[in-house]
Amino acid sequence: MKQLASNTSFQERVRAADNDLTTYLADQPAQPLVAYFCMEHGIAPDLRVYAGGLGMLAGCIEKTASDQQVAMVSVGLRYQQRFVQRLSYGWQHEDWEQTDPEAAGLELIPDLRVHVDLAGERVAVKVWRARVGRVDLYLLDTDVEENPEHLRGITDRLYLGEKEHRLRQEMVLGVGGVRALDALGLTPTVYHANEGHAGFMCLDRVADLVTGGVGIDEAVGIVRASTVFTTHTAVPAGFDLFERGLIEKYYSGWAGQCGVSIDWLMNLGHFPGQPGGEPFNMALLCTRLADYVNAVSRLHREITEQSVLGPLWPGRAAPVRCVTNGVHPRTWTPPQMAALFERYVGPRWDYADAEAWQGVWEIPDDELWRVRQQLRRELVEHVRWYLPRSLRAQGWSADLAWAEQVLDPEALTVVIARRAAEYKETDLLVSDPDRLRALTRGGPRPVNVIFSGLAHPADEGGKERIRRIVEFSYGPDVRANLVYLPGYDMRLAQVLLAGADVWLNHPRRGDEACGTSFMKSVYSGGRILTTADGGADELIVDGYNGWIIGDRTFGASREAMAHNAFGLLEHVITPQFNDRFDGEMPAGWVEGVKQSMATLAWQVSSGPMVDSYQRLYTEAARRARRLTEAARRAPAFV
């Protein structure tokens, strides 16, 4: 550090970066203000308030809103612990570590406490701020000295705990979030609930309006007009459900305040005709209290309209919109590739249009190939550093020299990295061990295969899938070219995405709402091998800008999916990568990389996604103002 401090060139770069940031932050957006609520936020590797794709998407939206000067403020929870994956004989265990908010760059808002009533218990909530460019992310935290121990732990861990604990977390997010924004002097015009976890913020806003003199019907109308709800769930079983007894316990006071019955409230979380004793569905609550409901891919919209939410509108078309997910390009693009885009696509390549992205065809093939070679070699170097340390942490005492020489830096490298949820079929290739073994031992041209991913701590099936992968990877006949890397997080994902030649994505068709990992690989020059699910269904044209596993039908068996994936890897993808008849560079492969970039990079950028949301926000703000003004003129309000 002392050497850098005295380095003139380094000092100039720091000053230039500081000037750029100052200029960037000086351009502050105008109203209307949007409040974006989500249980998780993937902003940076060290800020562990994310678990998976939902959080990564939230981070991409927040960063893009900052870039595009959308007036947005975000709300989430500050989790006191994070889990660290440990392996023992291939089985995942969890170590829980305390998180340090200040070390993660959070600022505590001084002298600010908001309070949330939880069935007669008053919980104090403090507020931390993370600056995401122009967007402030406020994270609520119940670890406050004045709270008794059982209340201090409400914001302990993400997506863990029994149902009542989850309900309390969601009340702190929704109710506490609305009150924190009010205490900060912020008056959002539009509220965006990213998944049903945020639904209680709608109820708190209804109560505020009723308390202020607005009738219940008018209050519901105003909240509906000013709310956007994004659903990311493709199967009904994925929604948050709370038993009637819990809703009565925590929301009887709300019902009395608003002059309605518990049955009236329960109906907000039920389909038409559903018995009143059935569990309360948070996604239905959000759908009933939002005029702007969207799915996150075209296929997801079809499924949502037909089965997931469709019964809410019997006999008529479901008013579900589509905003296909995207990714924040600069978060997921390695510097070497970003430099190429800067030269050949333009300085604003991250939000460039289809015409500008045709500039990738001007990149000299050998230059693009050199960058791809460099990124793959850096990935191999990282694995050779990472794997021995991981094995020692697992208790391996044998000679690990082999682990320091795994993978071939010149070989086709296939990456499968994701949560080990059942529908994602994480261990699909391992289901045919003979073909996988043959693929990785392919004579002079073996294929590197890298697995990574976590199971939810309560997902025993996911842990078993990881165990099967790990056990296979330990085999002496495959371990030179096939590895499993534990500890999958945002930082490791960036390394894997950068070096992957092929990003393998194989969720069961109809179960993935969108998926974004395959989108990120585009910006590193990775090719996409995927099932036709989620966003891939509308974006990937088989053999043109990627490869589709199987056909576009539902219900394919694991055996059929594995057979089709191996067929493409063995007979199409590997031969094309290894086709070097005109020299050391596979010209056909490089052309495919360019084709993928030229046709996908502008579509999978988060720019078009946030543009679509901004149009919804503008429409919602206009309608909300009109309804609010009408309510304020009404005699009951006066």
Keywords:
single chain, 638 residues, alpha/beta, Rossmann fold, ten-stranded mixed beta sheet, 15% strand, globular
Distance between the termini: 65 Å
Per CATH, the class of the domain at 331-604 reads Alpha Beta
- CATH topology of the domain at 331-604: the name is Rossmann fold
Rg for CA atoms: 25 Å
Strand content: 15-25%
Bulk shape: globular
Unreliable sequence segments:
none
Largest sheet: 10 strands, mixed
Structural class: alpha/beta
CATH superfamily of the domain at 331-604: Glycogen Phosphorylase B
Name the CATH architecture of the domain at 331-604. Answer: 3-Layer(aba) Sandwich
Number of helices: 23
- Which percent range fits the helix content? 40-55%
Compute the number of strand runs.
Answer: 20
Mean pLDDT: 93
Describe the structure.
This protein has 638 residues and is an alpha/beta fold. It has a domain of 274 residues: Rossmann fold (3-Layer(aba) Sandwich). It contains 23 helices and 20 strands. The strands form four sheets. Strands 1, 2, 5, 6, 7, 8, 9, 10, 13 and 14 form a ten-stranded mixed β-sheet that branches. The protein is globular and about 80 Å long.
SSE map:
Blueprint: H1 2-5, H2 8-26, E1 34-37, H3 53-67, E2 72-77, E3 81-88, E4 91-98, E5 107-108, E6 114-118, E7 121-132, E8 135-141, H4 149-152, H5 163-183, E9 190-194, H6 200-211, H7 216-225, E10 227-230, E11 241-242, H8 244-258, H9 262-268, E12 280-281, H10 282-288, E13 292-295, H11 298-308, E14 320-322, H12 329-332, H13 335-344, H14 354-357, H15 365-393, E15 413-417, H16 433-440, E16 448-452, H17 460-473, E17 482-485, H18 490-499, E18 502-505, H19 517-522, E19 527-530, H20 534-539, E20 547-548, H21 558-577, H22 587-604, H23 606-633
Parallel strand pairs: 1-2, 1-9, 2-8, 9-10, 10-13, 13-14, 15-16, 15-18, 16-17, 18-19, 19-20
Antiparallel strand pairs: 3-4, 5-7, 6-7, 7-8, 11-12
